[in-house]
Amino acid sequence: MMRLIPELKLDVVERCSGHGGTFGVMKETFDVAMKVGKTASRNVAKTGNKYVTSDCPLAAKHLVHEIETMDEPSPPSPYHPIEIMARAWGLVE
What is the per-residue pLDDT across 28-87, written as a single tens digit (0 to 9) for each? Predict the structure, then answer.
């Protein structure tokens, strides 16, 4: 669906974000979740895109959090794919 948006620069990162539901937010497993998601976060940061999205909204937020810990100057903003589509078609600002 995202590929249907004209002029959209889409970079697919096929790696685990490390979030995995409560696994990514529980104190006992948070560090492991961050380690698992490090490769995906680096790949997302390399794209230089302004937005990151995922079919799991929590995964996108987890990736952004990881990128922020890498001291990236301008980490992407997390959005659900539906939000990006709505913006592309002028349904929301």
Answer: 999 999 999 999 999 999 999 999 998 887 899 999 999 999 987 889 999 999 999 999
| Cα–Cα dist 24/3, whole Å | 29
- DSSP code per residue over the chain: -GGGSTT-------S--S-TGGGGTSTTTHHHHHHHHHHHHHHHHHHT-SEEE-SSHHHHHHHHHHHHHTT-SSPPEEE-HHHHHHHHTTS--
HSE-CB at 89 with a 13 A cutoff on CA atoms is 10
Q: Which two tokens stand for residue 2?
A: 């995202």
SS3 per-residue string spanning 36-62 = HHHHHHHHHHHHCCCEEECCCHHHHHH
